[in-house]
Amino acid sequence: MIIIRITNKTLKYFDLICRFRENSKLLRNMLPKLTKNNKKYQLNESFIGKQADDLGQLISEQIRPLYDSLGIVVPVKSCSIIHALNEVKQASVTEIARSLKQSHQLVKQKLPRLQKLGLITASSDPSDKRKTDYQLTSMGQDQALLLKQHSLAAVYEQLSQEVGADLFKVLTAAIDGLKNKDLMTRFKQQLPNHRNSETTHE
Q: Given 73, 96, 165, 202, which is the most exposed site by the fewest CB atoms within 10 A?
């Protein structure tokens, strides 16, 4: 049986990769190395969002068979929710979203499937009937333990060495960079430079 430990950092690796959906110059020297070179249609830096999506999808596809072999039934992209609930015992959608730094809507969309799998249950908050709290079932707790007992940290570290960049640090920096200054602002700042460049070449 393959024994692979999954730590908080491992879950954050995958979570960051799945959440990163926009363009960022911080990834232009790293992400192209993670996908096959398409000679027929060469992508450039403007397609970093697509590259990030492709990376997240590839990891998701490759992790699933591994999880199956370990008896982990948690949907790959919902592992962070199971981990979060295991840490706090129970939480509302808003609290889960805040702890994972994800949108309320994204977290809410994932919860029904986790309930259907028997991993979580929902209950009304006694102090506020409008609030619904979620907690792990006994099966959910067992799955959370399996996730903790296995880790892909060494695998991601090896991949980082191959591409010459720390995946976790690069993705975190890129996400933080776009949160501090969004794409619209960055695009507008480049317009004067772009126009000046065109004028120079005329």
A: 202
| DSSP designation for 125 | E
- List pLDDT tens digits, range 66-80: 999 999 999 999 999
- Maximum CA extent, the chain: 70
Closest CA to 108 of 117, 119, 95, 118: 95
All residues at 6 or more sequence positions from 134 whose CB lies less than 8 Å from its CB, including other chains:
85, 90, 91, 92, 93, 96, 111, 120, 121, 122
DSSP state of 77: G
Q: Which helix (H) or strand (E) holds 49?
A: helix 48-70
- pLDDT confidence of residue 43: 59
* 194 vs 191, higher pLDDT: 191
| Tokens standing for residue 68 | 């199956």
Candidate CATH numbers 1.10.10.10, 3.30.1330.10, 2.60.40.1180, 2.120.10.30; the one for domain 79-137: 1.10.10.10
Distance CA 55, CA 34 (A): 7
Check whether 198 has a pLDDT greater than 90: no
